């Protein structure tokens, strides 16, 4: 099943979708997809993000693939929903997308073995974890200014149940900028796969229901500009649409009292 979180007529709803694109809200009402304001399909708790988890992406950044997972944390301020706007700061010279498979944890656990890892997964969604490369300090420390900007991580549209994804480690990944395909890869090329990551993280801390693991991106990242439409797509999960805007657009919304989907 595909599930979403949306805002509609001043309230937040959970929703499912039919093959015809009709959304059924948790109160039984049905609406069309274009009538909803899309929110992150899961309210993020602790979010673990993998750096350089695809060897080809590490190579295009002139790094070697890590021998141990390179993980950093992301704050809830970074997340916005499907069809939301992401701010490109005026002083940034290189800001690229990152199409990533997001693994949503379904129940709490610690010291989870690889063989049991998928028992702790609720489902999967798509994340586009933008990076502001101007501020990358070094290989070991992807600092806050690179990956924790407000609105810098669209996520969604759907949370897809794990039972509906036969093999999450063999899914095609693509990104399109203004309709042109700029990135293509597959989850099978991850350096550290999903069971390994769940075992690794849970070996020293508890993974909780609603935690999310962003599993990294393949090669093919390019700079994005104000006005671009960026679509990140993962086989079997969907297409996440996002728009790049400048400082003026978000400041104008702020002055009008319009909240972004990350504030809902």
TrEMBL record:
It holds the Pfam family FAA_hydrolase. SUPFAM superfamilies: FAH. It comes from the Bacteria. GO terms for biological process: 4-hydroxyphenylacetate catabolic process. Residues 46-244 form the Fumarylacetoacetase-like C-terminal domain. Keywords: Isomerase, Metal-binding. Signal peptide: none annotated. GO terms for molecular function: 5-carboxymethyl-2-hydroxymuconate delta-isomerase activity; 5-oxopent-3-ene-1,2,5-tricarboxylate decarboxylase activity; metal ion binding. Gene3D superfamilies: Fumarylacetoacetase-like, C-terminal domain. This is 2-hydroxyhepta-2,4-diene-1,7-dioate isomerase. The lineage of its organism: Bacteria, Bacillati, Bacillota, Bacilli, Bacillales.
